[in-house]
What we know:
The structure holds 2 protein chains of 2 kinds. The longest helix of chain A has 21 residues, at about 250-270. Chain A is elongated, with a radius of gyration of 33 Å. In chain A, helix 4 packs antiparallel against helix 5 (about 120-130), helix 10 crosses helix 11 (about 210-220) and helix 12 (about 250-270) packs antiparallel against helix 13 (about 300-315). Chain A folds into 4 domains: about 5-160, MutS, DNA mismatch repair protein, domain I (3-Layer(aba) Sandwich), CATH 3.40.1170; about 165-220, DNA polymerase, domain 1; about 235-330, DNA polymerase, Y-family, little finger domain (Dna Ligase, domain 1, 2-Layer Sandwich); about 405-485, no CATH class. In chain A, a hairpin with a 2-residue loop joins strand 21 (about 465-475) and strand 22 (about 475-485). Chain A has helices spanning about 10-20, 45-50, 60-65, 75-90, 120-130, 145-155, 165, 180-190, 195, 200-210, 210-220, 250-270, 300-315, 350-365, and strands spanning about 5-10, 30-35, 40-45, 70-75, 100, 105-110, 135-140, 155-160, 230, 235-245, 275-285, 290-300, 320-330, 370-375, 380-385, 405-420, 425-430, 435, 440-445, 455-465, 465-475, 475-485. In chain A, the strands form 5 sheets. Chain A has a 7-stranded antiparallel sheet with strand order 18-17-16-22-21-20-19, with no helix packed on it. Chain A has a 6-stranded mixed sheet with strand order 8-7-1-6-5-9. A 4-stranded antiparallel sheet of chain A has the order 10-13-11-12. Chain A is built from 14 helices and 22 strands. In chain A, about 30% of the residues are buried. Chain B is of the alpha/beta class. In chain B, helix 17 runs antiparallel to helix 18 (about 435-445). The longest helix of chain B is centred in the last third of the chain and has 20 residues, at about 730-750. Classes of the chains: A alpha+beta, B alpha/beta.
Amino acid sequence: MKKYAVLHVPEFRLQSVLRYLPEVRKEEPAALMEVQGSKLRVGEVNAAAAACQVQLGMSSTQALARCPVLHMVAANLGHERSAQAALLQTAEVLSPFLESTGPGVVTIELPPERTFSTEDFLGRIVVPLQALGLQAKVGMAGTPDLALLAARRGNPVYIVRNAAAVLSPLPVSVLQPSEELAAVLESWGVRSVAQLVALPMTQVCERLGPEAVELWERARGGRVRPLDLVKPREFFVEEIDLENFVELLETLLFLLRRFLEQLTTRLGNAYLVAGKMRLVLRFEDGSSYQRVFTVPQPTCDVDVLFRILHTHLENFVSESPIVGLELAAKPVRPGAEQFDLLEKGVRDPHQLAETVGRLQALLGPERVGTPQGDASHHPDGFVLHPYEGVEFSDEFDESPLLGVPWLRFRPPVPANIVLNDKRPAFLYSSRTTGPVSDARGPWLLEGDWWESWNWSREEWDIATEDGVYRLVRDGSDWFLDGLYA
Amino acid sequence: MAYVELHGRSAFSFLRGSSLPEHLAEAVAKQGLPAMAVCDRDGVYGAPRFYTAAKEHGFRSIVGSELTLEDGSVVPVLVRNRAGYQNLCRMVTRAKLRAPKGESRILWKELEEFREGLIALTGDTEGPLYQPVFRRDRQGANAALERMTHAFGAENVYVELQRHRVPYQERIVTGLRQLAEAHGLPVVATNGVTYAEPWGREVLDVFTCIRHHTHLDAAGRRLAVNGQRYVKSQEEMAALFSDLPEALAETQRIAERLEFTLSDLGYEFPRFPVSAGETMDGQLRKLAYFGAQSRYGSITGPVRQQLEKELDLIGRLGFAGYFLIVWDIVNFAREEGILVQGRGSAANSAVCYALGITAVDPVGGKLLFERFLSEGRKDWPDIDLDLPSGERREKVIQEVFRRYGKHGAAMTANVITYRGRSAMREIGKALNFGEDVLKRFSDLFASGDFAHTLELEDQVVQAGVPRSHPRFRPLVDLYHRIYGLPRHLGQHSGGMVICQGRLDDVVPLENASMPGRVVVQWDKDDCEDLGIIKVDLLGLGMMAVLQDAVELTHQLGHGVDLAHIPKDDPATYELLQKADTIGTFQVESRAQMATLPRMKPKEFYDVAIEVAIIRPGPIVGQLVHPYLARRNGEEPISYIHPDLKPVLERTLGVPLFQEQMLRIAMIMADFDGAEAEELRRAISFHRSNERMRKVVEKLRKNMTKKQVAPEIQEQIVGALSSFALYGFPESHAISFALLAYASCWLKVHRAPEFYCALLNNQPMGFYSPATLMKDGKRRGLMFRPVCVVRSGVQCQIEGDGSIRLGLNYVQGLHRDKAAEIVTQRDRQPFSDLADLLARVSINKTERRVLAKIGAFNAFDRHRRSAMWDVEGVFSNDDLFSGLDAGREAPLGRMDPLERLQADYDGTRVTTGPHPMAFVRSQLPYVTRAADLANGKNGLKVIIAGVVICRQRPGTAKGHVFISLEDESGIANAIVRNELFEKQRLTITHEPLLEIEGRLQHLEGVVSVLAKDVRGLNAPATIEGQSYDFH
């Protein structure tokens, strides 16, 4: 006879976010807020919040009125995906036949020949997931649906021995009817599974349609159905929990090189190469560091991959010793790339990646990239886009040229100005000195007035003996900003 | 040579200007300019306010407008003469009326049609020349300019140059100069003013973001480069255009060509058609005497004297036509069976009384005619008509439209300004704050714009923006700057303007959001300032209730005539004295109910005082307590001055009415008719502190001359200041008291009709239908649930005197479907549910809700069996479909709590037990509302119930008054400001509350002074039961 176990994480979306917020303790009230209609409403609550009378569907204001210390978080799909992956990976210890049934729900077809006790589920599923920050429940029964219902009722484990006894007292909502069907049943006063199955099935199904038929089936414990099996994503991962803390770069690099050798061997056996690497360092204080490296030209070359890691870690400093590390390689098929006639590949992409990586390590990633003019009025306004190699554009700027071309001074040349009737009359600077024969301006530019870095500048075009310059006053300081051609 | 700014926009260009016209005028005066033109976008919205302010500052205001053309370009035009103004108004009206609300596109060919009397500038960045000149498209620029000269005539087109110290702008100026030279056109300098002072640029940037639905971080080059579009002095402009003095000189030459001002509007009130050989004065006289005869029975000496005095003055002021037209509207309403009553100061007029416009006898009531009309009056008197709200009022409005034509009548506008949550929401969005912050800020306002003790900065902090936030300061500063600026134009609730000839010669008209309505571009104060007559056709829910109730009394065979109900009915006064006034007019508010037991009205005039005394004016002026103390003999009656005894005698020496203020001024400061008129305007005009200051100055001067003691002067001036804020004329109080008394009388003597009419005219008043029903039940009325076999579309009275809820109370049942049920039933009664479902096309949701609330119970054993049946496979197209005839439903009956929830879900009311009855057993420590009266003053009590009203009057120092309803009645609690601030969200968001505090039981008034407020878990989900912060 087949048997199934279901892992269920209640308030899965909330839990999957809270596991990344260690500052929110388990006993503190927390709620997941989501947009319902046009309003932000409570979507999920933890037990502490429920105890404070924070209820689903409340507006954020109402929730805060009930519980002023409520932590409100937004749903995070990425966190949900990671948490789901963690569930699947954990479930794999019981059986390779897994179904990712829904968010926070994994169904496992258990080996029929083995017996499972509550302790098995506790030790192999519940506790490991707790270590990952997820409070899970487990149910075991003869059908997937019943196992799910049992899991919902689990504390944290529930093994079903008598299906009817389990189902009857449960609320109808455990059968997961649609919103409309749930509303009809509620208005009928049908609140428990027992009440539902007491109704004449044919007549109910006549009234409520095919969904009611399915509901009925679930109410009777469901049926054995083939699982929609998933295979846990095949990562090429090497990891280690260190007995002796690592404090020196050399030791870390030594370990990483060994990991790389293993990984490249495994990749090579599968005729694959590494497209990306993910490095996770876990520290003694419980924190961790993670970094993903894109390999410019996917490869299995240990030296190349090692150099990427080495460049990054050269300037890496942590406040706490490393107690564990993980290196994962994302496998890709080795590709063949051909540039077109006018396009030129970077001569040594690895060298370039290494240089960019080194710059990012030195300056911070937010300070490295390709500058592009922004849409503000600031003459030097720009935004940085991540560096993605050399790009060619077919688009030409068709806006007319404004004024004569000029040479910008980088940096601007400090200047001293003598004013006459509020207009520049004499110029002193390291570049040129002399009387100003003509001055046009001032042009006044001001921007970002709502920011602490709001700016204003005054620009003049001045003629001296040796040319026409752009003169700028920034506060009380004067600069030569450029020379007209 | 003086510079004149010829191209300015005010905040009435809606998001394209950031200063009020008054502020622009201040700046113009400060800069010493001789004139300025305000050219608001597609209209003359800000023109009247700019005109009035310019007059005060002593410079000339020029009228103009920026016109959006069919190709999107924008051309500023200036008005030369009245013909030009009329052309502008007609042209804008035509474009506005054919476009959706808020849009306008004038065709190029229309410029030709309407060009007489207009001068055109070529505009700035949105002008037709800018783009081709910027692109150096000489051909395009030539074509655009030729198009303009063709449209306006070359002699009326000026090439406009602007310099804002923006890099590369000079290239445009050069291009435009070359173009002007090539076409032989003059150039003119303007600054394209969009704000009064440089900081207005920040507000404009925010407006730009709002207009483009973006925020400051993303708006980029759509924001202004700098803040140079302010009102500049002649010197500044001369410096900017030192190379082009002729462009500056041209401004003056153009200004000289512009003769028009708004004083030359050409408005004329419609002439009332009279028969040949008859005059309007003569007609009015005949009608007045005819009416007086039937009103008074016989015309006594005082009545004749008053009529003569009024008719003489009306004749001399030329207002006869106005009275006749209002009489005509009233007559129409009467003929259509629509209840109508004049309110306000018109009730001081015997002519209005005789014409049937008002219901108050001013001769008998010794009311002051000068409050309504006086010798010195230049503007038109104000006659406001109260009509039943809803369809009946709309019928009268549509009749006025019909009589005066689409271009001859319109509603006055109502300027909606940025304030409270709307201002913060828009600014917050522009500053890129999250939706959550904005929502919480809004929620902290609770409901409506009421006097609000939470400081703005604290409110922002509580909404989740710490003071250290870099955008905290900009948010707060911008809020203050934007507060009060116009946001959009709405429609005044009832103000209509009509005109002899075409109203669109006087002011542009545009579509209102409501179909069939046309609105002028000015609000009622603007219209009044410019001498345009407004007739207010106001909708009053209580008028509808009274009319419906009276009709029901006739249907039930014990008809009532409102004009003849006895004014000395003891039972009605008993109801008032017991403050049993829920559902009545004007005396049902919490504050009124707290005063009635102290006031103990015994006669009709007491009701008028009661209506007038619980008003912000008397409350702020601290007049309520002295009046009640004097009335109850706790304080001696004194008069401010012995000479004032005849004036103040009726109100025990306390000045309560505007008429008394006018008389005081006449007696103590020898004010003549014209001065009294000034005073009247000052206390009823909301916008000008200056006007008030001048009148007070004159009052003091005259009183000093008459050697009135300084302390008496202070008392008089103090009272006057209160009236300036919230003046209330005695005649208006009496008119309202008539309605208040009638509603109380009906509540006592025709309760079923009164409650039935109340339920059919919701929402209105202070209380929800659920509360009104509970109140009716306490009076012994029976309410019956909705039933498809018995209910009408509206609530109605059944044979046993019970009130049957109408199908109009079923949530989600379309009005047409309700009517269809009744029509089909009238044709042939429904034999069973299947028959009904076969004949009436109601959908699944409607079927479900009707079953759920028990409306099908006549066919089924109980609600659940009906719910089972309506889910049966049933389709009009399916021959084999049908209900399981005769088969019993397997569902159990609803229990009482389930019925309660179903009732609230389906109708928002219940005819069953009160929700609190279900939790009573769990609240042994809670005192029932009805038992509070047995408690002693100072007793510690806990009350609990459904919140039916939260009020935070501006006059109550931030205290909040909460009414909790339970199954026994209503308990009132006072929450002090400090406690409110501490538990603001609990108080404003919980539908049920438990309040702990001390009982206050004084002079028959019972309330609880709250010490703690807690949310109470509801036995059912109850929403929308509380009417908050009126």
